Amino acid sequence: MSKENLKVVILGGGESGVGAAILAKTKGLDVFLSDMGEIKENYKKILEENTIEFEEKNHDEERILAADWVIKSPGIPKKAELVQKIKAKGIRLSSEIEFGAEFTDAKIIAITGSNGKTTTTSLIYHILKNDNMNVGLGGNIGKSFALQVAKENYDYYVLEVSSFQLDDIQNFRPYISLLLNLSPDHLDQYNYNYEEYALAKFRIAENQENDNYFIYNKDDEMSQKLLQKLDLRVKQIPFSMKEKLNEGGYTEGEKLYVKLQDEFSMRIDELSIMGTHNVANSLAASIAGKLLNISNESIRHSLMTFQAVEHRLENFAEINGVKYINDSKATNVNATYYALESMKQPTVWIVGGKDKGNDYTEIEELVKKKVKAIICMGLDNSKIINFFKDKKEVIIDTASVEDAVKAAKSIAEKGDAVLLSPCCASFDLFDNYEHRGKLFKEEVLKS
């Protein structure tokens, strides 16, 4: 069937759904958008201006199941009954990144991983932009990728890609893919099976050929295990913080190195972002830059001038000699591990929220070593309190950002740091992690 006659249904009326609807309309497809919730006014206005038919607070199942192609928002669980019915009928089901990629010849650099995706995606975008390349930023970050395919004419796209988006791909084939690391996350969506979740991440490389590149973390055990099993055709390039490599990226002493056709190196203390994990992210980004033939000078300059992503180890204030750091984006234990590891001074740690099956043993030693007090911020903090009660003397239970900041300010002394790194999702008290981080910063900055 030619694309012209396709009936396309978009499920979800947020940023990615509306972007996909506009792309479908631009390409002359028969498009209908359906959202079980309420669509925000600004998105409704866009749909109306583009004469795109839509429904909200309802799913017209008959119409949806008559589609040739359904584009699903990553927020809709794959176990949802409607999704199961779509699959049972054999209707093609795609994510917005799959849909957008079908309509562009631009080179795609796609980044996934359990932690560091947003930072590394933003860093690679910064490296390309700094080198005057014609580049768009999308996926889980910035504007909808499909919308940019409809409206812009970029030569490159740098996309942050989640496992949920990769669950719904068929042909997606990036020019360069990056898998930064793996740690158990979102396991509730993957039958509580870590390997199943990890394999979803590896789908980023499944359609790549030997003229494409896959950048991966050689220090990551699960990545190494799955690379032995999977039959990938793509050219694989590793990075490591532990061993010197003949090809790829690594650290040695005070420097980081990338060895491909030639060699790039720079001092680690010249990087603009803090923390060991960000050295790994910078290595991965530098390899991508080299593969795109960006000069060493240009990459070095970009790594020295990059500004940290908001809500990710964002050092936003110093008040009375106390540093305040917003790491609201740390929604799992592994992300908080990286945050605590990078702390150089005694730390008052604010933690808590909606627990996704966390195991705190991973950070137990770091908490003993670096944390002077724990402040819990959530509706139910019992799990955190029970785990750390014999390990830390000062644990304070709060259920609001106001109380958490008040407690932190009363404990922190000159030379300390207050770190919001919650380990948990934000949905118990906040709309999302951005909302949590924003309110935290506002509360800290109140006199």
From TrEMBL:
Signal peptide positions on this chain: none
GO MF term set: ligase activity
Pathway: Cell wall biogenesis; peptidoglycan biosynthesis
Positions that bind ATP: G113, S114, N115, G116, K117, T118, T119
Keywords of this entry: ATP-binding, Cell cycle, Cell division, Cell shape, Cell wall biogenesis/degradation, Cytoplasm, Ligase, Nucleotide-binding, Peptidoglycan synthesis
Pfam families: Mur_ligase_C, Mur_ligase_M, MurD_N
Cell compartments where the protein resides: Cytoplasm
UniProt EC number: 6.3.2.9
Domain called Mur ligase central: residue spans: 111-288
Catalytic activity: UDP-N-acetyl-alpha-D-muramoyl-L-alanine + D-glutamate + ATP = UDP-N-acetyl-alpha-D-muramoyl-L-alanyl-D-glutamate + ADP + phosphate + H(+)
Domain called Mur ligase C-terminal: residue spans: 311-423
NCBIfam families associated with the record: murD (TIGR01087)
Family affiliation: Belongs to the MurCDEF family.
HAMAP family per UniProt: MurD (MF_00639)
Function: Cell wall formation. Catalyzes the addition of glutamate to the nucleotide precursor UDP-N-acetylmuramoyl-L-alanine (UMA).
Protein name: UDP-N-acetylmuramoylalanine--D-glutamate ligase
Provenance organism: Cloacibacterium rupense
Taxonomic lineage of the native organism: Bacteria, Pseudomonadati, Bacteroidota, Flavobacteriia, Flavobacteriales
